[in-house]
Amino acid sequence: MALERTLSIIKPDGVRRNLIGRIFSRFETNGLTIIATRMHHLSRAEAEGFYAVHKARPFFNDLVTYMTSGPVVISVLEGENAIAKHREIMGATDPKKAAPGTIRADFAESIEANTVHGSDAPETAAFETGWFFRGTEQFSVATR
Ligand code: ADP
Ligand code: MG
Fold first, then answer.
1. SS3 30
2. 65 in contact with ligand 1, CB cutoff 6 A
3. Which atom of ligand 1 lies at the shortest distance from residue 90's CA?
4. What is the number of the ligand 1 atom nearest to the C-alpha of 93?
5. Residue 108 in contact with residue 1, Cβ under 8 Å?
6. How far apart are CA 72 and CA 10, in angstroms?
7. What 3-state class would DSSP assign to 106?
8. Residues 6+ positions from 59 with CB-CB distance below 8 Å
9. In the chain, where do the E strands start and end?
10. Cβ within 8 Å of residue 95, ≥6 positions away
11. Residue 58 has what pLDDT?
12. Predicted confidence (pLDDT) per residue in 46-95, tens digit
């Protein structure tokens, strides 16, 4: 096990439906610490750059439109095995396939408006946390 950092986004449907507290609570009760966070309304360029890996996918344009439809809450989570643990708490991309008790099973509206984003590997976690937060904005559990 390793102490890791991962990027979390509460997507526009989650913010719109007042789910921020309930989602943060799931992170904290599962051993993940919020070490940086802010609310932000993404520009089209920010959303396109963040999701650049999906540029060729048929849903890319709709995804960018949806992600820019309202404010999101962007956070860095830290903890043992944080990347996989966060993905486990989130559940599968398609809420119909997400395990019971996961955020997406409980809250997601559709495969697109699926309430949360989480990095999927150490490389994407490093890129995604860096896309939104400078190192000096991340207050590690070890130093704060
Ligand atoms: P995840 O968010 O679980 O890592 P992906 O990285 O595959 O999933 O996709 C990124 C996001 O794109 C998803 O969270 C979802 O909002 C959207 N998306 C994925 N697949 C589809 C699809 N088939 N139709 C519409 N939107 C999709
Ligand atoms: Mg992904």
1. coil
2. no
3. 3
4. 3
5. no
6. 6
7. helix
8. 112
9. 3-10, 33-40, 72-80, 116-118
10. 104, 105, 108, 109, 110, 111, 114
11. 98
12. 999 999 999 999 999 999 999 999 999 999 999 999 999 999 999 999 99
Q: Is the pLDDT score of 141 beyond 90?
A: no
At residue 142, the pLDDT reads 75
Out of 57, 68, 111, give the residue to mutate to test ligand 1, the one with the largest number of ligand atoms within 8 Å of its CB.
111
Instruction: Give every strand in the sheet of 3-10, ordered side by side.
Output: 33-40, 72-80, 3-10, 116-118
Say what the alpha-carbon torsion angle 17, 79, 135, 43 is, to the nearest 10 degrees: -20
- Residue 107: closest CA among 4, 24, 41, 49: 24
The tokens of 6 are what?
A: 């991962």
For residue 127, which amino acid is it? F
Position 25, amino acid: S
pLDDT in tens, 81-130: 999 999 999 999 999 999 999 999 999 999 999 999 999 999 999 999 99
* Residue 121 Cα to ligand 2 middle (Å): 9
Residue 6 bridge partners (DSSP): 77
- Give the three-class secondary structure for 109: coil
